Amino acid sequence: MGITLADFDLALGKPAVDPATRGLLAALGCFGAVELEGSVDEGFEPTRYVVIGDRGIIFVFELPGETPASKDNEALLALKTVQLYPLSPQNGITVAYAGELPAGLSFADTPDDARRKLGPPTRSTPGLDVWKVDGHRITAEYDAERTRIRLVQYRRA
């Protein structure tokens, strides 16, 4: 049985140490701690990326709101965004995401295809469309030729 959008939903918004988030990471073969990057001297990066290149997934963990980025707040890192990719070696993605994409999207979709499926985007820029659907924000980024989707981002709205 593969990972589903429902599995992502269980972990979205929850801290990295939450059992739902740890379970999702473990199911994908990630057993290490999600930690803030940087040293005390350099300052801490408030965003942490967990790349699961052999599954086509990047998880984006962020500190909530105005929480200061420090080792003291590391346990507050929460899963904010799931990024789903076809092949993307420059991002460490060696195998395309093979699961269900949100709202019936496909990596083969053009902008017109995606808009037919989801309606007019709530925000659009060249190469990117954003929709709010069922309490989620779905972002489709297109390749330079705008012939297919090169990234789908899924997060709570």
Order of helices and strands: HHEEEHEEEE
**Could you give a short account of the major beta sheet?**
7 strands, antiparallel
Strand content: 25-35%
Distance separating the two termini: 28 Å
List keywords for this structure.
3 helices; single chain; globular; seven-stranded antiparallel sheet; alpha+beta; 7 strands; 157 residues; 2 domains
Q: How would you portray this structure in words?
A:
It is built from three helices and seven strands. The protein starts with a helix and ends with a strand. Helix 1 (5-11) packs antiparallel against helix 2 (19-27). It is globular, with a radius of gyration of 16 Å. It has a seven-stranded antiparallel sheet, with helices on one face. By secondary structure, the protein is of the alpha+beta class. The mean pLDDT is 88.
Helix and strand layout, with pairings?
Blueprint: H1 5-11, H2 19-27, E1 47-52, E2 57-62, E3 78-84, H3 111-118, E4 123-125, E5 128-133, E6 136-142, E7 149-156
Antiparallel strand pairs: 1-2, 2-3, 3-7, 4-5, 5-6, 6-7
Helix pairs in contact: 1-2
Brief summary of the model shown:
With 157 residues, the protein is of the alpha+beta class.
